[in-house]
Each structure stands twice: as structure tokens, then as C-alpha cells.
Amino acid sequence: MLLGCIADDFTGATDLANNLTRGGMRTVQTVGVPRGQLPDDVDAVVVALKSRTVPAAEAIAQSLAALKWLQYIDCKQIYFKVCSTFDSTPAGNIGPVTEALMQALGCDFTIACPAFPAAGRTVFKGNLFVGDVPLNESGMRHHPLTPMTDANLVRVLQAQMQGKVGLIDYADVARGPQAIRARIAELKLAGVKVAIVDAISNDDLMRLGLAVRDMPLVTAGSGVAIGLPQNFSLSAANAATLPRMKGHRAIVSGSCSVATNAQVAHFTSSGGAARALDPVKLAAIETAGEAEIERVMKWATPLMATQPVLIYSTADPAAVLSTQALLGANQAGTLIEHALAKIACGLVDAGVDQLIVAGGETSGAVVQALGVEAMRIGPQIAPGVPWTMSVGGKRQAVALALKSGNFGADDFFTKAFRVLA
Ligand code: ADP
What pLDDT is recorded for position 249? Predict the structure, then answer.
């Protein structure tokens, strides 16, 4: 195994895996630390954790467990994938986890770089920009769990770390790998353990990739991954190829975000076969919602022989509010996630082998219900959203596209099936 990655959340893991695949690395993403065996023909593995906002001690424990497994399968380099908006608080978890991984790897220096210019994340003079504004002026300022009120990442990371934090300035990054390495040597002499790195373009990430070739640990967002495949002399040709699927096609959507509402509307208005779930019927105590699930399956089964079917709870903000007022927000969320997960299993058992799931939480529920242990990354549908193929679990292999809320254009659902055809 060439590259072993530890990602602090699921959709971030997919984003990273997608970048590696596009760079020519055959990549598998696992759901937590795997228990089973991985396929042999894989260059990179991304272990998806849920450690971004748990207490630091727990994040360290999860990350070290993942590291142990990655060391067991003999990865040449370790990548700790953090959020491209550096989501964290003064209590962690980026600093504490990075230091714990460094100690476990016997590594005396690493970088920390969330830059991903293609997604509008750039770092200059140690300051992170989101689009055209500094991090602390972006929406991240009001994040409910990790409000980011300082764009200066040297300061942000220093508050979370015992060791000293420094900066690899744009002047060195622009001059190339040798200048970056010289700067690293200087920083090491000055006692720096981790350096934030400036990067404002993909060219910067390519230069950085060459410079960190021999670094045992890289801490970064998913952008830095663009520069790593070039270090491994791979033949990029078929990294994203998935087996051809011949079964039925379906979409389950539990996302109520603006983009997903537009995608459901587009699919329906283009004549797609779609059926809305009724959350209130799902809550019917006497049948535990089973009747509504059965009705949906009866509707879908004959249709999916000839066309993709869409089953959705997606609704506009007013409808969501009225459902929440009736059922409670958390209860409604859990109820719908369980129902959609059950429907997804029913669809797969009825012959669906190409399944799109819209919604981050909804995707988590579906993957768990299907018992998927890992996913091989395939071709990209939209930025950050690839097709994947399930690995492990009790059911047959299924092509899965897991789309979190605001990803994808209006025609995402129809475009996705075309990408796989
Ligand atoms: P996103 O990625 O868009 O945030 P998620 O699946 O992560 O989507 O979250 C959507 C949440 O809203 C889920 O918990 C889901 O069960 C819930 N939900 C879906 N449809 C409705 C609805 N009609 N009313 C209330 N809650 C809903």
C-alpha cells in the first residue's frame, strides 16, 4: 500500500479518495477501521472516521487505531485528512491528533495545509481564505460546533499544540520543491514541529507534493492529495474503472438542502418516476410506519425494471418545519433516515445495483443498513462526488453515489446514471 489516509469525517474522506483516484491511484475508502480484507489491486486507502468534533482524547484514540491498521498493511506514507476550512476549536482536534500521530510514527516534522484552490480554499501568509474572504468572515464564523473566528492558521493551530507551529511562506512555495525543503530544514532547526503551508493554485500543490515525498506524515485537507500521486510512478489510466452494472437503478433522497430540492424537482419535471414519503404516515404508531414502506416498495418494484425510480422525503423549508413541529426535529430525522435505509435495502434486495443516496446523514444510515465495509472509488459525477462500488457486507456489490446536501447541479440524478453507463 502506497498511501494510508485517516479522515476525520465521511464526506471529507470521499473527497480525498476522489482526488487520489483522479490522480491515478486506485483507492478504497473504508467505513471506520476495517475488520475484513481489502482487495489486492489498491494503491491508497482512506479510513473514514467520525472524529472531527468528538473530544480530543477520543479523536486521538480513533486515529491511532486507524494508524495501527495502516501500519499493519504497510503503508509507505500516512495522510491525516482534516477539513478544508480547518474546522476545530482551541481544544482540538487537528493539533492533538497530529501530535499523537507524529509521536506514534517517530516523525519530527510535518505540514498542515488545508488549501484546495479548486474548491475556493487558499492559504496566503498563513491566512486561510474561503472564496474571496478570510475564514473568519465566511459562514464558518457561525458554525454551530467549530466556529472559526481567526483566519491565521499558525495562531489557530498553535493554540491546539504543545510543539511549535511555523509557516512555509508563499515565496518559498512559488520557488519549488527545493526551496520548500530548504525552508523545512530551517524551521526544524528553529524547533518547529508543524508548518502551515501557503498555496493558492494547483501548481503550488504539485510543487508541495514533490517536496513532501519522504515525509512520513502529511496533515492536510483533500487538496494536497492532488500533488501526491506523482511521487509514486503509477500508470494513471484505469484507476477509476468500475465493473459494468446491469441491474436496476434507484435514488433515495433524505436531503432537504437547496441543491437537492432542485435536483428532485428537475428529475420529477423531466418525467422521472418519483414518489414522496409521507413522514407523518411513517410515524403511525399502530404499524410502526411499515405500511408506508410497503406501499413505496409496491410502487417501485414494477417501475424499476424499465427506469430509475426516486423515493424522497426531500421537502422545502416550510414543509420540513411543519413536520418537525408535529414529530420533533430529531425524531423526524431519525424516523426518515431509518425508513430510507430500509427502503434502500429493499431496493437492493429487489435487484437495484446502482443506487444514488442524497443527504450526508441519510448516506450514513444507508451505508450502515447495507452493511457496507468499504467502497472502491470510481468515476467522478460532480466535484467531490464519485461513483463507488461497495466492498464487503452481506449483499451483492452495489454501485453507490453518496451525495451530501449541497453538491451537484440540478441534473445530478440523470447525469449520474449516464456517467456509469
Ligand atoms: P444534507 O446532506 O442535505 O444535510 P442529511 O441527510 O445529512 O442531508 O440531513 C437531512 C436530515 O433531515 C435527515 O436527518 C433526514 O432524515 C431529515 N429529513 C429528511 N426529510 C425530512 C422532512 N421532510 N422533514 C423533516 N426532516 C427531514
Answer: 98
Give 181-238 pLDDT, tens digit per residue. 999 999 999 999 999 999 999 999 999 999 999 999 999 999 999 999 999 988 757 8
DSSP state of 287: G
The enclosing domain of 310 has a CATH number of: 3.40.980.20
Residue 365 CB coordination number (10 Å)? 24
352: CA distance to ligand 1 center in Å? Answer: 23
Going by their DSSP bridges, the two strands 44-48 and 27-31 should be labelled as parallel
Q: Which domain holds residue 412?
A: 248-420
Cα gap 414→295, rounded to integer Å:
25
Encode pLDDT of 50-96 as tens digits: 999 899 999 999 999 999 999 999 999 999 999 999 999 999 999 99
Ligand 1 neighbours by CB, cut-off 6 Å: 254-257, 260, 279, 313, 315, 319-320, 323-324, 332-333, 336-337, 359-362, 404-405
Atom of ligand 1 nearest to the CA of 315: 23
Q: Are residues 203 and 276 in the same domain?
A: no
Tell me, in angstroms, the distance from the centre of ligand 1 to residue 417's CA: 23
Q: Report whether 418 contacts 281 (CB < 8 A).
A: no
Reported pTM: 0.91
CB–CB of 356/331 below 8 Å?
no
Residue nearest ligand 1's atom 19 by CA: 254
367-410 pLDDT, tens per residue? Answer: 999 999 999 999 999 988 999 999 987 788 999 999 988 889 99
